[in-house]
Amino acid sequence: MITTNTAALTAEPATPKAMPNFSHRVVEGYNPACPDNMILEVETMLMRSKGMLNILSDLHLETHLNQINSDNVSWALMSVIRELDDVYALVSTYRDAIANQQA
């Protein structure tokens, strides 16, 4: 006889206790409350995104669109989306750091 734990099926997912360290995404010594650090990091992230989009654009101009591997294009575009999500997270962290300094 198979039994089902319905409480486990309806329970909210547990929040992870430990979050990964993303410090490799920013320069060493990054201070989230420093405007100059934030500007440098946003500029770096935007350059990575623009670089990826420029590569895709060059590929599109040099070949017919159907000759480009659609999976690779999807992964490249997802990389840009993730990079832009990182920009948002960085700016949000800056906003929070400034708010905490003023409190």
What does this entry look like structurally?
- The protein has helices at residues 6-10, 35-62, 70-102.
- By secondary structure, the chain is mainly alpha-helical.
- The protein has a domain at 69-103.
- α2 runs antiparallel to α3 (70-102).
Summary keywords:
103 residues, mainly alpha, 3 helices
Percent of residues in helices comes to 55-70%
Distance between the termini: 59 Å
Number of helical elements: 3
Order of helices and strands: HHH
Could you name the ranges where pLDDT drops below 50 across 5 or more consecutive residues?
Answer: none
Query: Largest sheet, if any?
Result: none
Mean pLDDT: 80
Basic shape = flat
Oligomer state of the chains in this structure:
single chain
Number of strands: 0
| Beta-strand residue fraction | under 5%
Strand and helix map with partners:
Blueprint: H1 6-10, H2 35-62, H3 70-102
Helix pairs in contact: 2-3
Could you write a compact summary of the structure shown?
The chain has 103 residues and is mainly alpha-helical. 64% of the residues lie in helices and 0% in strands.
